[in-house]
Specification:
Aldehyde Oxidoreductase, domain 4; globular; seven-stranded mixed β-sheet; 3 domains; Aldehyde Oxidoreductase, domain 3; five-stranded mixed β-sheet
């Protein structure tokens, strides 16, 4: 099919975006617009009393000042998921802090004025009496006896504790193992830094007593349900959420935030639309952050180097409050810790800690990158201790295709996977056998070369059901209404290709409606790489129904059996003849009733899909400065079926760059003494730049998924899952070859690498 699944079509949605005709929240300016600013806490933990608000309220242009007393009728910001089997205690998170703040950036007041500058000026006039309290900003330290408490009713700062696997069996295997390898790794906290910061425009219609929120999100229905039902306490018909173009999400725009509810309250109170758009520093202080795990892992092996058991102690930082899906992130990530390896038994302990920091929630991969990082670093460490090659140790312990379906000791059931196959192909592409010569040549130039592997697997694509509504319009175009939300992935192109497989139409004859709770009845949003595995399957089912209906109508006109008809070029024709009827003519037929031209279906995944693959990174370290350069980067992935190779490559490249950024430079640093966020701007927080990124060598080695009707495995997060361990394994490989340095935590900044080199040299001199 010319436009169907498997074709490398360019994105149909790009033309208006590259011409500057996109429509983002910041672009939306209804008549009478007022602007809002948020007054935020300068303290990590403090009691406070608002002494004077009058000066702010009397300031030029000010229309409204909201504090906790004016928002007491609102519900708290909810955490909507817990850990199965545990009774979760969720700390109160009011939309504006009442008398105590729990992290720098906690919201204290909301000021609305005619201009943004006036709102900011007025916010500075609010006088507050602060009484600083003891604080804690590190999760591991927070769980130690005597640590300052974030919440008085959460002893030891423990949010929750849960386990996976069999502790008794695991301990028995460890007691009898020929070799035990251990490693402690830090997966540092990161800040999303999408191109478009969060924003909202709230409008209130007094005639209908109805609020409309226009905001950037990963799912309008999610925001409506949380903000409307839980916080504003409104029935669904009293609130509409519209999401226009979105400049990046990566998980962080899935969640409900305080400013959405505050803008709604303000718009109703002043009778004017109210707009709030975060500046970049507010993004650092108010949007959920990602990762932040400290993990100690042990691997038991027999005398031949086969894996026998895995023991993991994982500490996950939740921040000061439980964000929308926060507890679920370590819970869904931990079961993936065995990775692609045949490990008979394991025991995993997960503890979540409160700290006086910005809340942590899902960030591209949501728990699975953290799991992959632990096991892939641990396997490399085992290879060094056993004096064997990292690829040989992996091949010896990979789950074999003949073992599929394979149930891991954490209860995950992998349907397909040929892990040794994609490792071998990645090694060929990376010229693995020629590395030693390249390393020797680099050494003569004062550079240290390293090469690193990460063979990952993840679980995704299980969100649903997602309903797809298809309609043949009178002009012959096809419209899809669906509740997923594109934030740059290219959904309009992807779904058009799936529809083309059934109806033979070109992408320019296809239109997608998304991001509007009035026009779309239900929606799961976009997260967990489910848009194509779940949403795409729903589109396919609806398109098949529509195709059958159109053939039925056309059969009467063309005097042929439906089985003799085919689609192409926007028409239905009798196969092998020139007898055809165009879609516009078909849609105008009297028997083309609304129920015939409108179809819907919803696919509910029965379980996860398990994309997997191998990343190989070859790096070079400047011994004089510690600077790391990526020389070559290879990815071979198994995504089941490739929908669009061009879009797929973009997803993998983008995810890999985010992982590379975390591995080499990104780090969210809180000052332990003051609790201040020291990296609250792009002057202090480093992001990867295109100039320093490699040319990615990317291929797929697909094995169709048995858990998905179209064979798809989710792909949106995979790049970020394999890249961190590949880069860090390569760096440690270089350090180990030269100076027997066997460990380094992310980010591997030049200063850290240089310090590790100097310490390695010192140890060798002793």
């Amino acid at each position: 099919m010319k436009f169907g699944v498997g074709q490398a079509l360019v994105r149909k949605e790009d033309d208006p975006l590259i011409r500057g005709a996109g429509h983002y929240v910041a672009d939306y300016a209804p008549d009478g617009l007022a602007h809002a600013a948020v007054l935020r806490s300068p303290h990590a933990h403090a009691r406070f009393r608002i002494v004077d608000v009058d000066a702010a309220r009397k300031s030029a242009g000010v229309r409204l000042v909201l504090t906790a007393s004016e928002t007491a009728h609102l519900g708290h910001m909810p955490c909507v998921v817990g850990v199965p089997g545990l009774e979760m205690v969720v700390p109160p998170c009011p939309v504006l802090a009442v008398d105590e703040v729990h992290h720098v950036g906690d919201a204290v007041a909301f000021v609305v004025a005619d201009t943004l500058d006036q709102a900011r000026d007025a916010a500075e006039k609010i006088i507050i009496d602060w009484q600083p309290l003891p604080h804690i900003t590190n999760a591991e330290a927070a769980l130690k006896p005597g640590a300052p408490l974030v919440w008085p009713n959460r002893p030891g700062n423990l949010s929750f504790e849960t386990t996976f696997g069999d502790q008794a069996k695991t301990e028995k295997v460890f007691s009898q193992a020929a070799r035990i390898v251990s490693l402690k790794v830090v997966n540092p906290r990161v800040v999303t830094n999408y191109m478009e910061t969060r924003g909202v425009v709230a409008e209130y219609d007094p005639g209908r007593d109805r609020t409309t929120l226009t905001l950037g999100s990963q799912g309008s229905h999610i925001i409506r349900d949380v903000i409307g039902r839980e916080v504003l306490k409104l029935p669904d018909e009293k609130i509409r959420v519209v999401t226009p173009d979105v400049g990046g999400g990566f998980g962080t725009k899935l969640f409900a935030y305080r400013e959405y509810a505050l803008a709604a309250v303000a718009a109703k109170a002043i009778g004017r639309p109210v707009k709030w758009v975060a500046d970049r520093s507010e993004h650092f202080l108010a949007d959920t952050q990602g990762r932040d795990n400290i993990t100690t892992a042990r691997l038991a092996l027999d005398a031949k180097g086969r894996f026998l058991a895995l023991d993991v102690d994982l500490i996950a930082d939740m921040g000061a409050y439980l964000s929308t899906y926060a507890p679920y992130i370590p819970y869904v990530g931990a079961p993936m810790l065995p990775g692609v390896y045949d490990i008979p038994v394991c025991f995993i302990r997960v503890r979540a800690a409160y700290t006086n920091t910005v809340p942590v929630d899902a960030y591209r991969g949501a728990g699975r990158p953290e799991a992959s990082y632990v096991i892939e670093r641990l396997v490399d460490n085992a290879a060094r201790e056993l004096n064997t090659s990292p690829d040989a140790l992996r091949r010896k312990n990979f789950i074999k295709p003949k073992q599929m379906p394979y149930e891991t000791p954490t209860g995950k059931i992998y349907d397909t996977g040929e892990f040794a196959g994609h490792l071998a192909r990645a090694q060929d592409m990376a010229d693995w056998d020629g590395f030693k010569k390249r390393a020797a040549a680099a050494r003569r130039k004062g550079k240290l070369r390293g090469i690193g592997i990460a063979s990952y697997i993840e679980a995704c694509g299980a969100n649903g059901p997602e309903t797809a509504n298809l309609k043949l319009e009178k002009d012959g175009t096809v419209t899809l209404a669906i509740g997923t939300q594109s934030t740059g992935q290219g959904h309009a192109t992807s779904y058009a290709q799936i529809v083309a497989d059934h109806l033979g139409i070109s992408p320019d004859r296809f239109r997608m409606i998304q991001g509007d709770t009035d026009r779309i009845a239900t929606g799961e949003g976009t997260g967990g790489s489910s848009s194509i595995p779940a949403g795409g399957a729903s589109v396919s089912l609806a398109a098949k129904k529509l195709a059958d209906n159109l053939k039925e109508i056309a059969a009467d006109v063309l005097e042929a059996s439906p089985g003799d008809l085919e689609f192409g070029d926007g028409a239905v024709r009798v196969a092998g003849t020139d007898r055809a009827i165009s879609f516009p003519d078909l849609a105008k037929r009297p028997d083309a009733t609304e129920d015939k031209l409108n179809t819907a279906d919803a696919y509910k995944p029965e379980g996860s899909t398990f994309p997997n693959g191998t990343h190989i990174a070859e790096i070079e370290i400047d011994e004089a400065t510690g600077d790391t350069e990526i020389i070559k980067y290879v990815v071979v992935d198994d995504f089941g079926v490739t929908l669009n190779p061009l879009l797929l490559a973009g997803q993998v490249h983008g995810g890999a760059v985010q992982g590379i950024g975390q591995a080499l430079m990104e780090d969210t640093i809180y000052d332990r003494d003051s609790g201040q966020l020291l990296t609250a701007s792009l002057m202090d927080y480093a992001l990867p730049r295109a100039l320093r990124m490699p040319d990615f060598l990317f291929e797929t080695r697909n094995v169709p998924c048995k858990n998905n009707p179209l064979g798809f495995k989710g792909a949106g997060e995979a790049g970020a899952i394999g890249s961190c361990p590949a880069i860090m394994n390569a760096i440690v490989d270089a350090l180990w070859r030269s100076y027997r340095v066997g460990h380094l935590d992310m980010p591997a900044t030049p200063a850290r690498v240089w310090a590790a080199l100097e310490e390695g040299k010192r140890q060798l001199r002793l």
